[in-house]
Amino acid sequence: MIAILGAMQEEITPILQMIGEYETTEFANNKFYTAKIGNNYVVVAYSKIGKVNSALTTSILVQKFGAKKLLFTGVAGSLNENLHIGDILYATSLVQHDLDITAFGHPHGFVPGIEIFSRTDQSLNELAQKVAQKQGIKLIGGVIATGDQFVCDKNKKEWIKNTFNADAVEMEGGSVAQVCTQLNVPFFMLRAISDEAGGGADVDFDEFLNSSANISAKFVIEMVKAL
Ligand code: OS5
Q1: DSSP readout, 32-72?
Q2: 168 CB under 6 A from ligand 1?
Q3: Could you say which of 87, 170, 195, 196 is catalytic?
Q4: Per residue in 156-192, is it b (16+ CB within 10 Å) or e — as a string?
Q5: What pLDDT digit, counting tens, does each position of 177-191 carry?
Q6: Ligand 1 centre distance from Cα of residue 69 (Å)
Q7: What confidence tens digit (pLDDT) does each residue in 137-159 have?
């Protein structure tokens, strides 16, 4: 079973439209859609926004639905001047930018027992590069920073970018990464840029959410077909 996860309904609607027919199961105030894509059984869900929701849904996808791999699809704010609205990137690693016990002398993003950066699965990332090459799509890997904030401010954006050498910011990837790492599930994290995380990001986000979500979803479907 392969899990396809988004945070917002808009991020998985294109996946469900491409699949066409699926079964729906309700659990923990959420909906899980099961279907077959090519030779693979898939379970699709959106978690709702933020780290707690995405951690919960990831755990359910693995423990209740038996997901053996997880592919995340969605949108993100760009922190990298070479990543523009509609471009896609996959996470090579993820970090929680709002995790702060620096009062005890630790670096930002660190808690004891957990690595600051969670690395994604190398073979899924290589598959993504092959799919991108075959389709003539520009795809880069980078650091994605996660926190329970919609970043919409130049100073905050610069701080996250410089503190973690991050390329994109969002609100779920770091928690999905931690759950998958601890449950030994290989995971892949794709995001299409919806905004540039500075002043006015909210306006761009509203305008580009659907188109960017669609770009990311299309790519993830191609990956599942290639698995
Ligand atoms: O899931 C959240 C994170 N996503 C990635 C992202 C991002 N993250 C942080 N900073 C940025 N600059 C980012 N750009 C893209 C996107 C998403 C952001 S939070 C969006 C909230 C939108 C919303 N709020 N209310 N509604 C929509 C309407 C509504 C009301 C009630 C029930 C359902 C919908």
Answers
A1: EEEEEETTEEEEEEE--SSHHHHHHHHHHHHHTT--SEEEE
A2: no
A3: 195
A4: bbeebbeebebbbbbbbbbbbbbbbbeeebebbbbbb
A5: 999 999 999 999 999
A6: 25
A7: 999 999 999 999 999 999 999 99
Residue with tokens 């509203």: 206
d(CA 211, CA 85): 10
pLDDT of residue 156: 98
Q: At what angle do helices 173-182 and 51-63 cross, to 10 degrees?
A: 30
Residue 141, both tokens: 């890997």
Question: Mind listing the domains of the chain with CATH numbers?
Answer: 2-226 (3.40.50.1580)
CA 41 to chain centroid, in Å, comes to 20
CB 188 within 8 A of CB 128: yes
First-to-last alpha carbon distance for the chain, in angstroms, is 11
User: Are residues 179 and 62 in contact, defined by beta-carbon separation less than 8 angstroms?
Assistant: yes
Predicted TM-score of the model (pTM)? 0.97
Q: What are the tokens at 209?
A: 């959410």
195 assigned to active site? yes
DSSP-based three-state secondary structure for 28? coil
Q: Where are the alpha helices (DSSP H) in the chain?
A: 9-19, 51-63, 122-135, 154-164, 173-182, 201-226
Please count the CA atoms within 13 angstroms of the CA of 130 that sit on its side-chain side: 12
Distance 38 CA to ligand 1 centre (A): 32
Backbone φ and ψ of 182, nearest 5°: -75, -20
- Residue 38: the pLDDT is 86
- Residues in CB range of 34: below 8 A, 6 or more apart: 22, 23, 25, 41, 42, 43, 44, 65
